[in-house]
Design brief:
The protein contains nine helices and no strands. It has helices spanning 4-19, 23-35, 37-59, 62-68, 70-92, 110-122, 125-134, 146-180, 183-206. α2 (23-35) runs antiparallel to α3, α3 (37-59) packs parallel to α7 and α5 runs antiparallel to α9 (183-206).
Length: 216
């Protein structure tokens, strides 16, 4: 049985992660703005599939693998940090644009939208860190089956993530129109996003914690 305090804590962590700009958000916005809400929702379905893969892996004890082979965990963290820094640079480099004003993208069929959404989700360093290091901290063997707890915590994260991302998909076009009429706001948004991305990247890169393992 999950305590109320644990439920609230996981919800807050999940909200903080999903509201922080990252690969999933950038992909959803780019597709929703350039190809419409339907494309955004299909892409979101792919992202949901990627989250479900992490959910199953977390229940199966993926953290134990990283604890046994810590170098793999370190590589994932550094690669993820590097990717986020690259996204931050893209936002502020000369000639860079707002995430809500993506360049011309080819119109992809539903199958590709779904598959790219899933790949983006699976390669998202924020999600990997969340499932490997953060969620296991809430598992308490005294409260019952560890696998069931892991699944429950992961489901909370999935529900929060999909709820917030659905709102992002449905409002991306309106936000893009707002920023297009207000260049100053668009510039502020670019630098704010770059700052947040760079901050997350540096925190991930300098974090010396190891993957946490909780055993029954």
């Amino acid at each position: 049985m999950i305590s109320l305090s644990t439920f609230v804590a996981i919800t807050v962590v999940a909200l903080g992660m999903v509201l922080t700009p990252g690969p999933n958000m950038l992909y959803l916005i780019s597709r929703s703005v350039t190809q419409g809400r339907r494309a955004g929702l299909i892409s979101l379905a792919g992202i949901a599939a990627g989250l479900m893969v992490y959910l199953v892996a977390a229940a199966a004890g993926i953290a134990a693998i990283f604890a046994v082979v810590p170098v793999v965990y370190t590589v994932i963290k550094l690669a993820g940090a590097g990717y986020l820094l690259w996204l931050a640079w893209k936002a502020v480099r000369p000639g860079g644009g707002s995430v809500f004003a993506p360049g011309v993208l080819p119109v992809d069929p539903p199958r590709r939208l779904f598959s790219m959404g899933m790949i983006t989700s699976l390669l998202n360093p924020k999600i990997a860190i969340l499932y490997v290091s953060l969620l296991p901290q809430f598992v308490d063997p005294a409260r019952g089956d560890v696998v069931w707890q892991s699944l429950s915590f992961s489901l909370i994260q999935v529900v929060v993530s999909l709820s917030v991302n659905t709102v992002i998909v449905l409002t991306a076009g309106s936000i893009a129109s707002f920023l297009a009429r207000r260049p100053l706001w668009a510039r502020v948004q670019r630098y704010l996003m770059a700052t947040v991305l760079a901050g997350i990247a540096l925190r991930i890169a300098t974090d010396r914690s190891r993957a946490l393992v909780t055993t029954p």
